[in-house]
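Posted in: Structural Biology > Protein-Ligand Complexes

Title: Requesting predicted complex, magnesium ion in pocket

I'd be grateful if someone could produce the 3D structure tokens for the following input. Sequence and ligand are given below.
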Amino acid sequence: MISYEEALTIIFANTEALPKTRQRLEKLLDSVLAEPVVAAMDLPSFDNSAVDGFGVRVADVEKAASGSPVKLSVKGVIRAGDEGQLRVREGTACKILTGAPVPPGVEAVVMKEFCQELNGHVLVAQKARQGDNIRRRGGEFLRGEAVLPSGLRITPPVVGLLANLGYSTFAVHRKPRVAVVTTGNELVKPGRRLLPGKIFDSNSYALKAAVAALGIDDCLTFHAAEDESRTREVLARALASADVVISAGGVSVGDYDFVKGALEQLGVRTLLWKIAIKPGKPVYFGTLVDKLRRRRKCVFGLPGNPVSALVTFNQFVKPALAKMMGISAPGAGSVFMVTLKKTIRKKVGRTEFVRGVLKTENERLVVEATAGQDSHMLGGLSLANVLIHFPSDIEQLSQGEPVLVEFLGWNNF
Ligand code: AMP
Ligand code: MG
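-- Reply #1 --
Done. Output follows.
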């Protein structure tokens, strides 16, 4: 059986970024920059005040102090959006508001809190140095300067920065279209009547939600009952509609596990099946060449147990989706080391992803495994905010020991 790391390597080697497209600012969130961002102008584009206060000449307020303010004549008010036409000469000041252009002659802005206005004058009770409270033109970026690299995920600040620079559209990679396929005769749609022996379908909802959490809205769901030709037919429809097919269940070694066989009959090339991990050993990954578009579609056969399905989605499907969306170097999530609160044990041979809760205790970060670690127990995964990586060749992680945890945010790559 191949290892977690080997499986990730195979998946990365067989997925590629989708083509570029331009998107409007409003649609950019959660896409990935397909080109570097270059400053189209200086930012800020003019010298402006960082505070509400009074624009002064440094020499005029040299002697200003809290007990002995300096009196200056106020030449006018400049608000954000004004052109800033007036000129401040010796012995004068201007009232200036945050974001307003700094007029000629002003060398510093003294915060309002240190000034007192009275009939056309201001008493300034603090001295200033050149440039105090002034945001300089080009102080953050000069026109033509590299701002952000391509391959970066577009978060709210990135949207804001692009807008700041005057972009109304930007080049991103197309987001993948996804299809989720559930299998099994036991599934009933929540809201319907549960007959004996049946269970409510959770995977189609949970997996669609996991896809949506990454910012991918285009996700259809399909259901294949346990019959070989029907499974094949449904998988064929799913493959026709999507760049990535994620099935859940029917991929193990049971008599009614038709997914792998059906995919192979449809021309999908099996690249891996079964990974030495827990939960989620029977994961399948394959690709289908889409001759029309000269690209490969990816198929993930995840196990049916709800925790296995979601954990393997997080470990394998998410990085693949990240790469297709154009993330330059998708890793195994954001990982860090923290202290283990309570000893955990397992058998050697498989990497385990233990559902954990990270919390602060006595001003220290600690992690503890949740109750309910079985692969059908969604309660533990619902409470978890991290996955503890329990290496394959280790039997015990002891209390007080630093352990590797992966942040489980569902929307992070
Ligand atoms: P399988 O991988 O098909 O053998 O399924 C493993 C376990 O997951 C079985 O107990 C199934 O009943 C359960 N299961 C499969 N699909 C779903 C689903 N969509 N929602 C909830 N449980 C499921
Ligand atoms: Mg099944």
